[in-house]
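Might you be able to review the protein record set out just below?
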Amino acid sequence: MPDVAASKGQVAASGSRPSVMQAPVLVLNATFEPINVTAVRRALVLLLKGVAQAEETNHTEVHSTKKAIQVPSVIRLLSYRHIPQQSRALSRKNILLRDRNTCQFCTRAFPASELTLDHVMPRSRGGRSSWENLVACCYACNNRKGDRTPEEAGFKLQRRPRPFTLHTSRQLMRLIGNRDEKWRKYLFY
């Protein structure tokens, strides 16, 4: 595989900014429907294999020994891919993504390391670990809530916990896309 280095003032992976190869790229189906967000590295592989084409590019290029390629911002698959009904794995990361790293009781945003998961209906009372019963919660609110329901603790949930759906995934794409104007026309605001 050719050695790929970022150009035009990009900082290497050891620098203070993240590598250009890890930047987000919107992936569209052949019908221009948004289906995923991937890294530039994966998008370039799809382009070089002839599986996708660039619909929008950034002002940055990556170079191999013989070729310079503009970094894509949006790619479109050349053949239609059927996307089955997706369900996300129940994980801490996905709960924090769904709740946007925001405590569902005090409504403050925190880094992921300062959040925990709270069972709305405590496990000691038969509450299960499910999408509908887990929320992101800061340590202070979690300690105050203790082994009680939110109502018993005098808390109000910011929003009812729901499973991760295709609608939730599209909302996340929009949030990520707010940084890149080129995504707007593909995300159906």
The helical segments are 40-48, 92-98, 139-145, 150-153, 166-177. Strands lie at 5-6, 24-28, 34-39, 52-63, 68-77, 115-119, 134-138.
